Amino acid sequence: MSGRELPAGPWDVVVVGGGITGAGILLEAARRGLRALLVEQRDFAWGTSSRSSKLVHGGLRYLKEGQFALTRESVHEREHLLRQAAGLVEPQSFAFGDYAGRKPGKRAFLVGLAIYDRMARQRARHYFERDAFLALAPNVATDGLQGGMVYTDAKTDDARLVLRVLQEARRHGGMAINYMAVESLLCEGGQGGEVCGVTLRDGLSGAQHEARARLVISATGAWADQLRSSDGAGAAASPRLRPLRGSHLILPAWRLPLAQAISLMHPADGRPVFAYPWEGVTLVGTTDVDHNDDLSREAAITRAECDYLMAALQAQFPQLNLSDDDIIATYAGVRPVIDSGKADPSKETRDHALWLERGLLTVTGGKLTTFRVIALDALKLAATRLPELQGRLAPQPVFSVTAPLRYTPDLPPGQAQRLQGRYGASAQALVDAAHDGELANIPGTETIWAQLRWAARHEDVCKLEDLLLRRTRIGIQLRGGGVDILPRIRAICQPELGWDDARWDTEQDAYLTLWSTHYNLPKR
Length: 524
What we know:
- The structure is a single chain.
- By secondary structure, this protein is an alpha/beta fold.
């Protein structure tokens, strides 16, 4: 959407929340002819959907919990996205060392992988003897190593996946606006009545709006309980979520070089931890702890979580002598997990849940991988109020087929497919808009300079953090959040954004302050 105008209603559906769940719902609603609006109080993918572990996986560990249906569903969606979004969703092999006395043992792990393969309708060799495994996963600890298992899942750039889904939704007529916060629910007959829309406040201008709709769908993730109780109606106010924080470390690829992802069990508590190559760096995660902080504040890793993840790395890669000095950046996200009262946060189900209360449909929980399934489940429930949806909810491919990029000799190897996956039908225009030298990779990343220009020109960038933390991921790929290349970023993007010098300086100061407090290594 260009500008900050809000077209007149009424809408068929107003979706609240600009993460992957909300984006998926907007797409599935718009492609079925509904007049659909999505609003996001911060930036698109600002919350959990830019702070995930960036894995599109089937949930191998959920088999241990007996969650076969969730795993099967996830595996099917992973395979669909690998076919549909090559260059954005990519295969990633995982290696898991078979150490004497370590659980799960070889037999149990291979049984799980056999089930995993069957769900994906594929077969692969999984076990490698010690020397062959060390060739696949050099630098791992060798004491007690007997061999290892290797299996394949997938990875993505989670924020770019959200933006690609929103791009597709807009192509079908959906509308999405960032920095547009819901202040309250509109109810027929006053507080406690049937929900008939939302009141909105523009986070940039302060302007007030109303958006009336036949149905309001809350896809606000960990924030869902807040919206459910926003009209003060007691029937909708009982909390149902358990916000859990997952924190991650980013290290240089040269310091922790990995061809395979390494999956391990933490030496302190046996929880799964992983390290894998991602976008030119090495990503390490994740923690799983109760998040008791104010959800209106941005999540950040704690010192204890950082030490926990470093302990896992030091145990798995002892010869590398990794330390805090090797950490480029950190990030943390809050997962919307349904609270079932289990003592161990990691035992809570990752399945999604839906509640229809007085015209407010809440969709929460679930996994990045299954966003299409979640969206269709939401519309199946919505069909009780929007009867025109009935009989029209068969799954469809997420993305439209687009023409391949023309051969461009200046593009680095692999970039054509990468850009095609991230930008779809806009990929060629992005390449064509590049100035001299802008098709080269930004050093230390797999991002090209032209992506910055395109984002500033076309992708609803309202703050510098939008550009560097979500439209691109430079803020977590380079030391200091990319401070050393900010002059060139300014030269490219300031004219495209139309910001004067004072505005740029203000945005830069705000971004660097945010990075220092929420993406930097926490002090001891």
